[in-house]
Amino acid sequence: MKKIKPLLLIGILAFGLFSFSKMYFTPLYFDIPKGFPKPVYDFKNNPLTEEGFQLGRNLFYDPLLSRDNTISCASCHLQQTGFTHVDHDLSHGIEGRIGTRNSMTLMNLAWSKTFMWDGGVNHLDVQYLHPITSEVEMDETLLNVVKKLQENPKYPPLFKATFGTEKITGQLTLKAMSQFVVMLTTSNSKYDKVLRKEEQFSEMEQKGYAVFKQNCASCHQEPLFTNDGFENNGLPMDSTLNDIGRMRITQNKKDLQKFKVPTLRNVQFTFPYMHDGRFETLTEVIKHYNSGIEQSPTLSKELQKPMALTDNERTELVAFLKTLTDKEFLFNPRFSYPK
User: Fold this and answer.
1) 281 domain-assigned
2) How many domains does the chain have?
3) 295-306: string of b/e by CB count within 10 Å (b at 16+)?
4) What is the pLDDT of residues 153-164, one digit of tens each?
5) Does residue 304 lie within any of the structural domains?
6) CA pair distance 23, 14, nearest whole angstrom
7) Half-sphere CA count of 338, side-chain side, radius 13 A
8) Same structural domain, 23 and 162
9) Strand residues in the chain grouped as ranges (E)
10) Do residues 39 and 135 both lie within one domain?
11) Are 52 and 166 in the same domain?
């Protein structure tokens, strides 16, 4: 792939006197892919450096962040599946505890204003507090995470290389994690190559693209394939989970059963689907939108009528969705477990 010319320099080359020795930081460039909007994330408050990226990468894959040192961020966010899990519908935490929702994918988060299925977090730098402190996920406190990091001989030097100090704080820990996660950008799928006129859709993929634009694009807006909003997509409420969605955060009845619109990028590999992982395949998902939508007062206005696709159109739509797979992203060694 031809490297996209950097459009935004967010790393800075900083140097100064720390503990009587000069420290140098290696800046990182954040490339805005052609056609993408301006990122939402404020890089000025957390300038990216190679040292920060590598520190965040180590933290992301370290089970030390959990109370019993068994669960890492990567336990529920596997790179090869779009940084989500595929082996069960609901997330699993320490001691085999089962959560109430399917883990969301981690990609192109520099463009996200809210996080979690219900939008309960509004800044990437504090997103990690939720899984760390959740009793069904990592069941730990940030204070104790900092204590464990400070006592681990591996981390003080990494923090000094990143921030110029060996004194580890919660704020620096969270910022370091963001420096890794915010770089998880995916923009080299076949779809992207077609837009760059490097490849062409097959006849079936082209027809599927037309079906997509007519039926799906209002919520899954290109090029991010999400509108970053919340919608009730007509799923019957699970009687066991009784998940009311965004209403849990806003306490507004108009938000009942509304959930964040997920990106469709790499959707071929991010199963199971929906906030509770109820669907195993894309075919099941399309079948729901085709004929399984449950009417309710908060149902998305875009879904008031089922899609009513033919069998051929459903097959074509799946073919197009598979063009959103970015294998360079899914297997990029830079995002994998640090060696």
Assistant:
1) yes
2) 2
3) eeebbbeebeee
4) 999 999 999 999
5) yes
6) 8
7) 13
8) yes
9) 15-18, 21-24, 230-231, 259-260
10) yes
11) yes
